[in-house]
Amino acid sequence: MAGVDEAGRGPLAGPVAAAAVIIRSENQVISFVRDSKKMTSSQREQAFEKICCLSTAYGIALVSAAEIDELGIQLAVKKAMMLALEAIEKNFNLEIQQVLVDGLRTQKLDRYSSERIKGGDLHHYSIAAASVLAKVSRDRHMQTLAVQYPQYGFERHVGYGTREHFEALKKYGLTPIHRKSFLKNYPFPSQNLII
Questions:
Q1: CA–CA separation, 68 vs 65, rounded Å?
Q2: Is the dihedral of CA 26, 28, 34, 39 positive or negative?
Q3: Average pLDDT, the chain
Q4: Residue 69 to residue 73: CA distance in whole angstroms
Q5: Furthest-apart CA atoms within the chain: distance in Å
Q6: What would the DSSP string read from start to end of the chain?
Q7: How many other CB atoms are there within 10 angstroms of residue 36's CB atom?
Q8: Could you give the angle at the alpha carbon of 78 between the alpha carbons of 58 and 73, nearest 5°?
């Protein structure tokens, strides 16, 4: 049984991330792991390494802003979740029989028997652990993009629609990592920035 969660459904820039985690005993549970939104950044970073070391298996996947624009966010989240599950099967040579998914809005995951659970990251450790892996992976990715696009402040807001981000968009325009479908009602110019 794998727990699955996503991070980055709502930002204006960057990928959406998903992770899947399998545990088989209580000895693999890290006591301070819970919904990643209820943890500090340093707690998430500390938990990330421990989850990877202690879990039976885990998988992480990112789906780009361009794919989000092409598929829509719901299908992009589904794709990221499917890729995370497939990563477990490939990298750990395991067959997943059941999937627990956080949230009721997630699309049905083809090939997997799954249960969607409202507030799943509050009730199932494997989902909470997956939420930490997804969030940390996405935040780390946005830190690398902050180096590439320093004028946008991605290291601070990780692509969310903060005042700082909107001011940068007005000044510098859209980049290739912005979700154009999320910003279609805003008159921001496109920039030919180096990718």
A1: 5
A2: positive
A3: 91
A4: 8
A5: 53
A6: -EEEEEE-SS-SBS-EEEEEEE--SGGG--TT---GGGS-HHHHHHHHHHHHHHSSEEEEEEE-HHHHHHH-HHHHHHHHHHHHHHHHHHHH------EEEESSSSPP-TTS-EEEETTHHHH-HHHHHHHHHHHHHHHHHHHHHHHHSGGG-HHHHTT---HHHHHHHHHH-B-TTB-GGGSTTS-PPB-----
A7: 25
A8: 125
CA distance 80 to 97: 18
Write down the pLDDT at residue 37: 82
| CA gap 118, 89 in Å, rounded | 26
Q: Is the pLDDT of residue 110 over 90?
A: no
Q: Which of 188, 154, 193 is nearest to 176 (CA)?
A: 193
Q: Does pTM top 0.85 for this prediction?
A: yes
**Cα–Cα distance measured from residue 89 to residue 40, given in angstroms and rounded to the nearest whole number:** 31
Residue bearing tokens 């202690």? 54
CB-side neighbour CA atoms (13 Å) of 53: 6
CB 18 within 8 A of CB 114: no
Of all residues in the chain, what percent carry a pLDDT higher than 70?
A: 95
Lowest mean pLDDT among 102-106, 122-126, 182-186: 102-106
Specify the pLDDT at position 194. Answer: 40
- Specify the pLDDT at position 193: 47
Domains of the chain: 2-138 (3.30.420.10)
